[in-house]
Each structure stands twice: as structure tokens, then as C-alpha cells.
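Example 3.2
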Amino acid sequence: MEQTVRVKNIGLRGVTVADTKISYIDGEQGILIYRGFRIEELAQMSTFLETAYLLLEGTLPDKEQLRTFNDRVVRERRLPDFLLQTLKGWPKNAHPMDVLQASVPLLGMADPDLSLNTREANVRMAVRLIARLPAVVAAWHRIRNGLDPLPPDDGLSHAANFLWQLLGKKPDEEDARDLDVCLILHADHTFNASTFACREVVSTRAHLYAGVAAGIGALSGALHGGANARVMDMLFDVLSKTQSPEEVRNWVRQKVRSGERIMGMGHAVYKTVDPRSKILKAMSRKMGEKLGRSRLYDTLILIEDEALKELEKKGKTNIKTNVDYFSGSVYSMMGIPVDLMTPVFAISRVSGWCSHIIEEKFAEAQDKPALYRPEAEYVGDYCGSIGCEYRPVEARS
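Structure, written as C-alpha cells:
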């Protein structure tokens, strides 16, 4: 009698669950593409809002389309008064990711398009979230520090306005551009955990805000969006314990040889250097030199070089730095606190989340299932074909 062999795909690794036109990764070659465009080209030539338009609409905008899209985002920057009042009543030690996730349903309640399930209405909701999530992060940071939230400056770019509302000073053009590039780099990354969470939720015909709230919840986990903060925790730990390059190398050797992970190295998809990491590496070096804070960058380079040598000795030649390795140092030099680094990730990724939600809701494929419903293999008690015998509590030993 033949036995049926069931192949387990733990964590859905390697399982294709849907088609997408939004982004593509070649993990072997280190290639990331948004709607057909290489990430390197977008980072060099595009802006975050132009990239957000590309993700949402499927094509790069012409001059008039881009101007209109920018104007729509600027008009939607202001937060509802009731949300600002609500934020002031929350515990000041609440984690920014929890605050951000809790704010999304409140924004949804006030959205006039919430009950409309058309593509156009979902794009309008996406524009509001792209505009308002940065305002939520900035407002919460000021409120928890006893400061009043700042109004948006309509004359500033998307990235510059966020830094203004967060830090209370207008950034120089170079810093604003650097943050804009960071937002481009984090805007989408195919079916990662948070994006899949968004798509799974809206496959039930839940609205866009429910999907984005789920995405933020997934991103809050240490194995996903929290990785850049863990890199900074590692870096500050190294800086506090070492005084010389050789001491840094010794620290790395001890970590790798004992089997511990180096934060920001290795990736579920990339088997070579993450293409986003190359861009952030150059940005970290440039900012360190500009601000006289090169020790952050120099220490990261020491850790990277020594870790690669040690990993090679173990035959692990496909573990390289990922997007989180250098992004934390860039954000830190911009004045962004460590616990806001994952929320900054979210204010970028919301453009990708919304694009995937809209694709999920209005997919062209006719064979797409109505909702995601994977199977699990039951390994608990069974007690035969009729199940276990229920005994009253008095009869249980």
C-alpha cells in the first residue's frame, strides 16, 4: 500500500501564494525591482512620492500627474483633532509601533471613503495614510516628551516635513534627500511578513485600514522591522565595550565562534549583498564624515569585515549585510531615536502595503481564491475515529 508523503513548508518558505506586478527580488544576484525599475536607479533619480505613485498606479507619472499627486499628499498631512487629543491621553511609555498601529483604525473611522470598495476610493485612502503616518509618528514623539505637535509645513518635501514635525527644525537639503532615498529603499519588498499580513487580512474583504493595521503589527516584531533597532543596540554595546579596532575584531570573533548572530547580517531571500545595503553603506559613510561621527560607520565596517572572514571559515559565504545593517546608523545621525526606526520603516512601507492591498482586492486573475486559507497538519491528541471521551470534571484524575 502506497503512503502519501506530505511535504511541510514551514513558515510558507518557498511557497508561491499569489501573482504580483509590484516588486521582484532575485536573491542570488542581489536585484530588487519596483514595477520593472531597478532600486538603484530609483534611489538615484526618483523621489519617494514619485516611487509611491509608481507602486500604486503601475507607471511613472508625467509632470502633471506627479504635481497633482504631491499636492494631494500635502493636503492630507493634517491629523484630525480628535486623534491628536487621543494621543495626549495615552501612556507616555507606550512603544511608538503600538501607538502607530492603534492610530490606523482611528484614522480609518474618519475616512470618508472607508465604505467604498472601488479602486479609486482605495487609492484615495492610501494617499491619506502615506500623508498621515509620518505625522502620527512625529506627533507621538513630541507628545511623549511633553511638547506640542507641530503643524505641517506645506512648502517642505515629504521627507523634510517629517523631520521638521519630528525634530522642530528645518533639515538641510542633503539630510532631507537622504531620508527621501531611505524611504524609497524601504517602500516595498514583495511578500515579506508584513505585506503578506496585509494581503491575507484584506482577502477576507476587510477594508484597507484593517490591512495596514495588520501590516504594522507584523512589522513590529523583532524578526522583521525591529532589526535595524537591534543593529543599533548591538553597535552601542560594541562602542561601550571597545576602545580599539582589535577589540572590535575580538568581540566579533567571540560572537561568531560561539554561534551568536551578528545583527543586520543574513536575509531570508538574499544570498548576496542586499542592493539596498550598498546605498545605505555609502550614505552612512558620507553622513559620518559630514557630522564628525565616523566612529559609527567605521565600527560597522570593522564588524562587517571581521564577521565575513569568520563566517567564511565556517563555509557560510552567502551571509551578507542586509538593509537593516547601515540604516540604523543613518537614522541615528539624522537625530531619529532608536525606538522610532521601525516606525520610520512603516511610513515608507505603507506605500507598498497599500499597493499590495489594492492589487489583492482588484486582482485580474480569475483563479485567485476568495481568501487565504492554508492547511495545518494536526499533531495533537486524537483517540481514534470518534475522538477522545469527554469525562465530567469530577471523574478526571
